[in-house]
Amino acid sequence: MPELPEVEALAADLRERVVGRHIIRVDVAAISALKTFDPPPTALHGREVTEAGRFGKLLDLVAGDLHLIVHLSRAGWLHYRDVLPPAPLKPGKGPIALRVRLDTGGGFDLTEQGTQKRLAAYLVHDPKQVPGVAKLGPDALESNAATFAARIRSRRGQVKGVLTDQEVVAGIGNAYSDEILHLARLSPFAITDRLTDAQMTTLYEATQSTLTDAVRRSVGQGAASLKGEKKSGLVVHNRTGLPCPVCGETIREVSFADSSLQYCPGCQTGGKPLADRRMSKLLR
Ligand SMILES: [Zn+2]
């Protein structure tokens, strides 16, 4: 799932390629992906793209007073193409959800792999009309230490869950939270309101450096190479069974119904493995 650094890089890429160009047409191939109906997609036709940005993990394409806001969700992605085939998209065929055609002859596709369709696009006058934007906490990279600490402490719970709650701070998902907690040497199950001031400062600094490094590596990469770049920078996430590059201990995971987290027992939990529902079932 694209998180803050990847969405920042996609926005930067769009700023370079698309801002200043005019939209010729918007084809909606997956009707369910477009969550708004007024204004209709045709309202974008003939408009100049004036800015590209993001709200947390949501991408924002601005055309005057209209915002096309996209939550790529787990399997969504953006593909920029220098040349688009002239024929209109056929609805309901293939992974393309939405195509934006520009006056250059090129444009971009929003795609989603797999059968679970969660990609969501909103065409609105005010970004706050998008539920996921209205409730968003302050951006993880734009929060200072005091705001960050207050936000994290405002929600009592396991730090992994609180850190990825977009209403607490915006932009962090499953992959970067694993990386941040590893760098901060904190258990993913540590309870937020029991973190000491020193642990909170470490968590804040780990958040800033993890995301800043990832943005630095990502921006300038085209959409096509971003996923590989993200993977190559990960130290614990999706690396179950491999040695931790810091202490050499084997990276372990905890699995949930539809996700999993990875951590290093050596760096994060004093050498103790965390309880895992699936593992304890096997051991019983
Ligand atoms: Zn380690």
Mean pLDDT: 93
Low-confidence stretches: none
Strands, total number: 10
Helix content: 25-40%
Task: Determine the strand fraction and express it as a percent band.
Answer: 15-25%
* Alpha carbon gap, first and last residue: 33 Å
**Biggest sheet layout:** 4 strands, antiparallel
Describe the structure.
This protein starts with a helix and ends with a helix. With 284 residues, it is an alpha+beta fold. It has helices at residues 4-17, 131-134, 145-154, 159-163, 174-183, 197-218, 223-232, 265-268, 277-283, and strands spanning 23-28, 51-55, 58-63, 66-71, 76-81, 96-102, 107-112, 120-124, 252-255, 260-263. The mean pLDDT is 93. A hairpin with a 2-residue loop joins β3 and β4. α1 packs parallel to α6 (197-218) and α5 (174-183) packs across α6 (197-218). Helix content is 30%, strand content 19%. It contains nine helices and ten strands. The longest helix has 22 residues, at 197-218. The strands form three sheets. Strands 1-6-7-5 form a four-stranded antiparallel sheet, with no helix packed on it. The chain binds zinc ion (ZN). Zinc ion is lined by residues 244, 246-247, 249, 264, 266-267.
